[in-house]
Write the structure tokens for this entry.
Amino acid sequence: MLSIENLRVVYHDVISILNGISLKAAGGEISVIIGANGAGKTTLLRAISGMLEMFDGDIIEGDIKVGDFSLKGLDSTDIIKKFGLTYVMEDRPVFWYLTIEENLAAAAYSRWDKTVKADMEKVFDYFPVLDKLRQQKAGYTSGGEQQMLAIGMSLMTQPKILLFDEPSLGLAPLITEELFRIIERLNREGLTVVLVEQNAHAALQIGHRGCVLETGRVVLEGPAAALLENEDVREFYLGAGAKERKSYQDAKRYKRRKRWL
Amino acid sequence: MTDLIQTVGAGLLIGCVYGLLGLGIVIIFRASEAFNFAIGEFLVVGSFLFYLFFFDLHLPFLLALPLGLLAAGALGALIERLSIKPLLGRSPLSMTIITLGLASVLRSSVQLIFGAHSYSFFLDLPDISLESENLLFPSERVWAGLLSVVAFGFILFFLFRTRWGVAIRATSENQAKAMAFGIDARFILLLVWALSSMCIAMAGVMISNFGALSYLTGIAGLRAIPVVLIGGMDSIGGALIGGLIVGLCEALVGSYIEPWGLVGFKDVAPYLLLLIVLFIRPYGLFGTVKIERV
């Protein structure tokens, strides 16, 4: 459904972040993207959602397609309207000085239909926590509530495809678990999800497919279950590679070279 | 005592106009963190646009005013498209500096088109001067205060009760987040500039009505600087309060300190007040207290 072909992205015309990425996210699945800091995960999502221009980035090669339609050159508002593809930015993209209700209304700005109010109630059904905070300024709510609000806001755009950028950033494990259950539920109800995560273990458990990004390239991809078992992924991203516990005393900085480099 | 009431009243009336001017600066500052130094020129251009409709085309006031304001809004939007939009996502400082250049361009254009002489400007509005034995508030001042407050109310309604208002406030907080949720930040910026130039044009018409209109009327626009700095650069209510404070300060100084021989001191006094306010509250009286989560 969503396919990326040999995508190259540079920032400020000089800093090359994505060096030819090819990926496919099948409709109705959760595709997980993991990778170290600076691997290009966020840039990839920005490129897909038409947000690169805001950050002075450019696609210099390759293409992004939903079905047969190219997203290249469209900006985020068009992409949301035409393809129902919404990007939930990292670090809880809510408007701090607006109330929860106003936040949801702002996210529905691109819509003109009469069902906005009904959709808002649906969001409050999804997230009962928010119901009690309707008139509260979003800046004064907790991190978990803000992330739920951000997801609620993305639902207000009537998405078919949701891109999540590290929804678990800075949240307690229990909240993270709840968030992931919500994402799973959204996916069961028909949404295609692309999930970028540092919390690789949790993400791969709910994901259908996964891929590993490193210095702007896809170095490994496959079914999520297979990635969970992959020796390299286990060692470098899940922190569970070594067969026996080693003393830190004789730990070397690099025990083993990653095979794909 | 009546003297004091007269002075305070006059100060508050003109203060409302200053508040409207300040609002014009504040909404742009909130949306793009740029300071519009071309405010004086926007004021003159807006007034001239109204002049065209009212005095040259002889339209009735109730038709000429909305038309003039719409024209001013359209011009503001055009200016934004040409000079500000290409800078979206860049440093607000470059936008601020662009407005300095804009000021020169607009001022010269006005001089080129309308000449450097004064145009007599008299709105034939119904006489609503407030008069008692010792007090007199002239009709045009009362109208100025009244219409400014009404215009202020309109803007507040627009910002807090309409979908565009919510979108403007969202974009003002963070352009990237707004874009990610499908709010067209470029259009919002256009809207903000249009709204701001309408505010400024409205204030301009009121100010021109006190005397005559020429390209030098724009100097009154400089009053907006102490207004927004005292009130807080990003506070809408602060603009009104700041306007009232500056108006009061000017009037009081004008009638109590200037007679000592300090002619022209009333133009300086707001800046002195500004200094004092900034010493105590660097963000202005009502500048945003950043939300801090604990």
Remarks:
- Chain A has a mean pLDDT of 88.
- Strands of chain A lie at 2-11, 15-25, 30-35, 57-66, 69-70, 85-88, 161-165, 192-197, 209-214, 217-223.
- The interface with chain B takes residues 49, 51, 53-56, 75-77, 80-81, 86-89, 93-98, 102-103, 105-107, 109-110, 137, 139-140, 142, 153-154, 156-157 of chain A (CB under 8 Å).
- The radius of gyration of chain A is 19 Å.
